[in-house]
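Problem statement: downstream parser choked on a complex file, so we are re-checking the raw output for the zinc ion run. The parser issue turned out to be on our end (a line-ending mismatch), but while we're here, posting the original submission so the record is complete.
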Amino acid sequence: MANSSTEIAIACVHRGTFIHSTWETPLQILEDALLGVGEDGKIAFIGEGKDVKQLSQKFGFIPSEVNQLAQNEFFMPGMVDTHIHASQYSYAGTALDLPLLKWLETYTFPVEAQFDNLEFARQVYTQVVKRTLRNGTTSACYFATIHTDATLLLGQLANDFGQRALVGKVCMDLNDSVKSYKETSKNSEAETGRFIRELLQKQYPLVRPVVTPRFAVTCTEPLLKRLAAIAQNNNVHIQSHISETVEEVQLVKRLFPDSASYTDVYNKCNLLTNKTVMAHGCYLSDKELAVFRETGTSLAHCPNSNISLCSGLLDVRNALKHKVKVGLGTDVAGGYSASMLDAVRRTLDTSKVLTMQNPKHETLTFEEVFRLATLGGSQALSLDDKTGNFQVGKDFDALRVNVTVPGGPIDLIQPKEPKVLLEKFLNLGDDRNIVEVFVAGRKVVPFTE
Ligand code: GUN
Ligand code: ZN
């Protein structure tokens, strides 16, 4: 379609209900709206259905070619998984009977060590990218393993299937439990450099490298410092874990006696930046949260994992009160579900448990959690200039949701307003309700191959 008012041609126009968040309101509902997507995959305009004629003249599209949503359908922004271990997907749903440090030694490291086999990596990584896309994850922040070539393959697969992704080669120069699964400090640094170079050379439009020290328990201080320098020199993201369990916090205290806190360990190594996302943070003090705020570091809240490994409960309300950026993460396979809908539900459950423990705790609303899963996640990954909500100029990352899809999990006895449709979908829906997924304007679900 031609576009008379601007240079960008309109690729398609959708008409119906759009539900998204802004920073002013966690739930904005646009009924009978028109949204045009340019050939560049960006949102070109948002208007009202009643103005279709004028809009079609202004933007140069044909009204009869507008894609009309059906009753009980709506568009919402794609969800952002701010923390997921792609390499742990093969055992998701199992091995949840040990606390974190024993869990890592017993289940995680032996599995991750197998990713020196590129065929195994291809199998697992193909499945996890497809599964998350189908479940509405349009952006994912992935941990891979210490293996550079397998991690590059994960980047290639995310690109091939059209997912927006931050992809991290894991760094760890300490590990006494599984001897084959660690690097020398020199190698870790050199391979991180090679990973970033080779991934950037591919020029995938939606895939970026993220510097990934596993956590302070498996990285020496010199390595942490060198990784921070690499991230700074390449202006790339950083991800790690922090304050997930009491035992881990105590161990870090013993390993880094000169640091005032776990946060201080990373801060002293220059790892806390406005492109850093730290997973968990269950035991951060208010002082540490203030450092997160000052440095622009964000938190990936991973409630399924926090509960499944009996790690702890993050008080998201308190983090938000400290103006810390917060997104949601599945943390597969500490979290057993790869679906962000599960992360939404477990976030609400956790908040309700905190209210049971302290009636003064201000429970998160489903609208706020919807925002955390979309706009909040995009902000936590510093991608909010590109994705997270429906704003002209952002990429069209969206889910077409049909609440009453035939054979689906939701029964509607009477017609419901859009807010109720969203709440039903968040609490009861699954991938059957997600009938189409778009990333940067491209339809990536249903799969074409
Ligand atoms: N801390 C360090 N590594 C990991 C991991 O793989 N999963 C979780 N949940 N926590 C970690
Ligand atoms: Zn994790």
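For whoever reads this later: Residues 10-77+389-445 form a domain with the Urease, subunit C; domain 1 fold (CATH 2.30.40.10).
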